[in-house]
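Handout, section 3.2

Students often ask what a structure token actually looks like in practice. Rather than define it abstractly, here is a full record for Stage IV sporulation protein A. The first block is the sequence as you would receive it.
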Amino acid sequence: MEKAELIKDIAERTEGDIYLGVVGAVRTGKSTFIKRFMELLVLPNMDSESERRRAQDELPQSASGKTIMTTEPKFVPSRAAAVQAGGVLVNIRLVDCVGYVIPEAKGYEDEHGPRMIQTPWHEEPIPFHEAADIGTRKVIEEHSTIGVVITTDGSFGEIRRETYVEAEEKAIEGLKEVGKPFILIINTARPDHIGTAQLQQELSEKYDIPVLAMSVEAMTEANVLHVLQEALFEFPVHEVNVHLPSWIMALEESHWLRDRYNEMVKETVKDIKRLRDVNRVVDQFGGGEYIESAVLTGMDMGQGIAEINLNAPDGLYETIVNEIIGEPLRGKEHLLEIMQHYARIKEEYGQVEEAVKMVKQTGYGVAVPSLADMRLEEPEIIRHGSRYGVRMKAVAPSIHMIKVDVESEFSPIIGTEKQSEELVQYVMKDFEDDPLSIWESDIFGRNLSSIVRDGIQSKVSLMPDHARYKLKDTLEKIINEGSGGMIAILL
């Protein structure tokens, strides 16, 4: 990632204020890190010469040995430095915290006991170890947008690695409680050593944060940018847009495959908390029965928005098509036959679709004729008194639907009351779990559905043809001539 783009993205996430809180144990190189960071990234990019000189004078001092150098929190520079990068003006400031005490360090006690130091958060001096605890939390919560924890592998100086572990854990625990993005840097004299790489991997797994290994004293601009880039990936994700294949989006919302995709997306993206998590989650999507692969198509680091495209296996489309048409698709010619058949059905059904909805809702539905159905008769000149006019008459068929509840009754005589009760229990045994299963009940060698269907069919066919014609004629007269408010039906 380019330097200007990186700083621009971080500036967006921090609202233009890149404030680094540098925390950790004493004697790990926190002051050295701040000094090198300022020299490499901040001072060269400051426009004001006077501000640059002032910031230069405020750089912290560092030294080797066991004696503690930072005895009070310090803002570097005291006023945030305005830095121009890629057309974006950002304010950069670092905070040098009082380090967590380790047993082998010197300078946290004097002849009177624990050393008392002054902090910006208390009017009275407080013990050194208390200043480290309170200062770390205050700096990260109130004065920082990014946290940097410095630790060491013990490869420089006179203090062993084991001595730093407790203070390191305490610092990281405190930052996790605050919830702001932070990274861990192992300050080492041998950044390329295999043992350093192993420690880096071990700490990354232990704390679930990015861990960098470098010599802080020999830090380069590339190292500084790497620190910022890793910190950027620790910022939270605000939005994840997962795009399903377009043909799946064309399915009805209630379709089982759309439901399955929605479940998989919800289950997978719930693990995305940081920008760093996005790539890992994208890898989890692919290789399943319904998702062949997932591709990260875009990530706006500054806004915290990720775009993910899901790709379905090739055979899944054909499976769903077969399911929808109700038969296996045998080839292109078969598809054309089906499409033509469906087109004819759609054209026919389109005329009565609204009528079907009406009859289901109210018991009566009317399909209004289309312009193509209308027949215009020859105009006729008519006389009305001394005046003349023209009569134009159009005839069009309208389809009227009436919903009629047809009753079908089946009353087998089987013997005793007990036998009748047993038949009822047999028929109703699975009704609560599956109401439709009652129709599959076998009675006297036939299932109940076929018995009831035959009864309904026989009643429907009982209406004679002449009665149907009379009903049609009556309806035509009512529609065309009106009923005068009264309809009489003689049975």
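Discussion prompt for tutorial groups: The chain has a mean pLDDT of 83. How would you have guessed this from the sequence alone?
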